[in-house]
């Protein structure tokens, strides 16, 4: 039996016997010949099946009991999406528009016949496509999204491992909130309650107390955020890292720059041409260092451009993020910008305060093409200061006792960041919604499929 060939490898194979398997994309059923476009997970190929001439007797009359042309009949009834295996003769022919190759069918096996009516079309809404996500993901463009995401994750892991970071897998069921009481999913847990982790933050810091040094995790996180924007989800994959023995959040920013340069270099090398073909996007590997702008300075800059962030908002709002990104592109030719020196009023209690101005934190947001992808910071490692900052935020240190215990027996100065994998993928490929960059999206009104 001829072993299955992947379609992407056919152009390098010599003419001769071949076997391919995949989904039927289109059927052109003509009088003398049939053409089928078959797609597998690597590409498309054209199948050709010349119809057998109807047998006739010596007088030229059709033979009534002649055997039917089984292959032709089967092809005539194939619906889009049917899964088949075909054996036949591979032939290179530059006249064939689809890759310059075709396969003349010798045998065809139908493994599963698809329903003739497809529930989604090219112009279906994003919600309709999410209802039928497995069909939506058959499109080569959509499959490319997750091949790119795989390369992105692999490149990040390679950088961490080469620099002797340790990969950890933190629990997602917690006995107390991981950041605050807001945006928490609460659930029954035997005779008590548990919470779904909003981030691995506490456990990343525990690893520093344990002496692990640099650690990383790529895993799920949960936010009970009733947002319906194109860039939010209730369950997402968080990319997190933490390092010890830092001098300031500047060390964290340098780490993130290096990680992103490594990841985007790998994506550009492996998928750059395909990304350009399917998404019209040139992958840009950023230069380092990325521009750095204190938050108050960024607000002044965008005010001079004609936009003012609402005065009751200590943070940068979405329009402000777009404006400062436009400024950085114009002034520095850069897609990234670090906004630094965020007010303590809008930062987590564990962010270290600035020595020069305790109202500010040693933290940053990283903005990419107008959207925030990361919050990073130096963490507070002194127990007494950490307890005081928790009380300032209205948190009870007693409820954080397991976390605060990490700091009772020696904790090095440390810091780190977290970023959403789907949001990074969305911005890399210039997608309009996080849903397309998520294998199966979860939001306030979506728990299926």
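^ Assign residues to that structure.
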């Amino acid at each position: 039996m001829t072993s299955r060939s992947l379609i992407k490898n056919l152009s390098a194979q010599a003419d001769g016997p071949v076997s391919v398997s995949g989904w039927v994309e289109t059927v052109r059923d003509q009088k003398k010949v049939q053409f089928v476009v078959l797609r597998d997970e690597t590409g498309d190929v054209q199948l050709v099946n010349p119809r057998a001439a109807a047998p006739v007797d010596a007088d030229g009359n059709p033979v009534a009991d002649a055997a039917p042309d089984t292959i032709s009949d089967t092809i005539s009834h194939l619906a889009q999406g049917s899964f088949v295996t075909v054996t036949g003769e591979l032939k290179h022919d530059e006249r064939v528009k689809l890759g310059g190759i075709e396969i003349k069918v010798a045998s065809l096996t139908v493994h599963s016949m698809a329903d003739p009516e497809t529930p989604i079309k090219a112009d279906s809404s994003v919600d309709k496509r999410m209802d039928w996500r497995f069909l939506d993901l058959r499109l080569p463009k959509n499959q490319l999204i997750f091949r790119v995401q795989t390369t992105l994750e692999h490149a990040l892991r390679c950088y961490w491992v080469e620099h002797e970071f340790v990969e950890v897998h933190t629990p997602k069921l917690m006995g107390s909130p991981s950041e605050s009481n807001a945006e928490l999913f609460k659930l029954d847990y035997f005779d008590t309650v548990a919470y779904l982790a909003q981030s691995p933050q506490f456990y990343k810091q525990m690893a520093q107390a344990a002496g692990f040094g640099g650690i990383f995790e790529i895993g799920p996180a949960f936010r009970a955020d009733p947002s319906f924007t194109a860039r939010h989800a209730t369950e997402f994959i968080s990319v997190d890292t933490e390092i010890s023995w830092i001098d300031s959040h500047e060390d964290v920013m340098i780490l993130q720059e290096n990680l992103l340069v490594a990841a985007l270099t790998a994506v550009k090398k492996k998928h750059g041409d395909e990304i350009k073909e399917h998404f019209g996007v040139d992958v840009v590997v950023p230069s380092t260092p990325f521009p750095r702008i204190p938050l108050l300075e960024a607000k002044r800059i965008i005010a001079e451009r004609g936009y003012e962030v609402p005065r009751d908002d200590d943070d940068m709002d979405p329009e402000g993020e777009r404006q400062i990104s436009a400024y950085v592109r114009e002034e520095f030719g850069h897609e990234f910008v670090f906004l630094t020196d965020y007010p303590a009023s809008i930062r987590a209690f564990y962010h270290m305060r600035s020595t020069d101005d305790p109202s500010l934190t040693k933290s940053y947001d990283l903005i990419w093409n107008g959207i925030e992808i990361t919050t990073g910071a130096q963490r507070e490692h002194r127990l007494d200061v950490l307890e005081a900052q928790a009380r300032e935020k209205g948190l009870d240190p007693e409820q954080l006792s397991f976390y605060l215990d990490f700091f009772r027996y020696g904790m090095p100065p440390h810091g780190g960041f977290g970023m959403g994998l789907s949001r990074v993928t969305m911005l890399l490929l210039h997608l309009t919604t996080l849903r397309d960059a998520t294998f199966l999206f979860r939001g306030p009104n979506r728990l299926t499929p």
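The chain is about 30% helix and 25% strand.
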